[in-house]
Amino acid sequence: MTTHPAETVYATPRKEPRDDGWWMPGRDSFAACALSASARTVADARRFTLSTLRGWQICAALADDATLIVSELVSNALRYGVRDAHGTAGGRVAGPVVTPAWLALTRRDDGVMCAVSDGGESTPVIGTPDPLAESGRGLRIVEQLSDAWGWTLPDRSGKTVWATLSPRN
After folding, report:
1. Which pLDDT score is estimated for 137?
2. In this structure, how many other beta carbons lie within 10 angstroms of the beta carbon of residue 34?
3. How far apart are CA 80 and CA 77, in angstroms?
4. Stated pTM of the model
5. Which string of DSSP letters, residue by residue, matches 92-137?
């Protein structure tokens, strides 16, 4: 397991407008979108990822793997990292979200880095799910499909969980 050496994305000053929820400064480099706590968020993140990677002309197999990884990272962010108005983290957010989650995609040569930032202070843990359990395998999927993955050290603003992918030969 690798811990990314960068600070969280919340520590980076941003000068670009954020009124429409996402920003893409260049066709071939970076795209990000804000994530809500709605039931559609994971599906929206998958669509955003696939659309962005197709626009960057990333190979279809890599785009599919990245989309699955984003789905798992966003699901975990919503389940464990999003805080409601009372500052609690959990799967069902009843109130307005105080600390939003973000999805960022960065093109690196012919590969991609996917990163999801949330307000959670706990680090990801690969569990051993019951064979009949319906959940608990997400980080194992991320580990199998990515070249490397990890997270930033949590601070008062949360953490970022990331994964890098390159085309498979």
Report:
1. 86
2. 15
3. 5
4. 0.76
5. ---S--SB-EEEEEEEETTEEEEEEEES--SPP------TT-SSS-
